[in-house]
Amino acid sequence: MKKTIRLVAVAMFCAATALTSCGDSKKQCDAQGGEAQTELSTSQKIKLRAFEKEMERVNKQLPMDMGQGLTLVKAEIKDGFMTNTYTYKKGTDITIDNTEESKKAIKGAVGESINRLKELNLGVKYIYKEEGSNIENVITISPDEM
Q1: This model's pTM is above 0.85
Q2: Of the candidates 31, 36, 47, 92, which lies 20 to 30 Å from 119 by C-alpha distance?
């Protein structure tokens, strides 16, 4: 029977990193691309930098065994997402569940940290890579879905 990864390990990671909170974001429209962009307030920029420093501290402790055959190898803030990269051994009997139900479970498991991510207008991205191959699965929850 295959194990279904619903990112409980990720939720534990998010809680363990003690995300910082912030507020007062302003939305702008990029005149050339027409895309909504978020301009962070000074307070948010400071808190985002603190969050990035926390990610640096976490990265110094990696790789970290997260159970169920997953190893956290990288945590970063990149392109508007809190991105966590995991590896698993080739042949591990797991399935990456990228359904709406799974995303809802992830958001629920992250708990209060989800509000902090929303306030910084960050989504979450979980990248799962099979060691020794090019197999990669990604679960993405956009800032709007948060």
Answers
A1: no
A2: 31
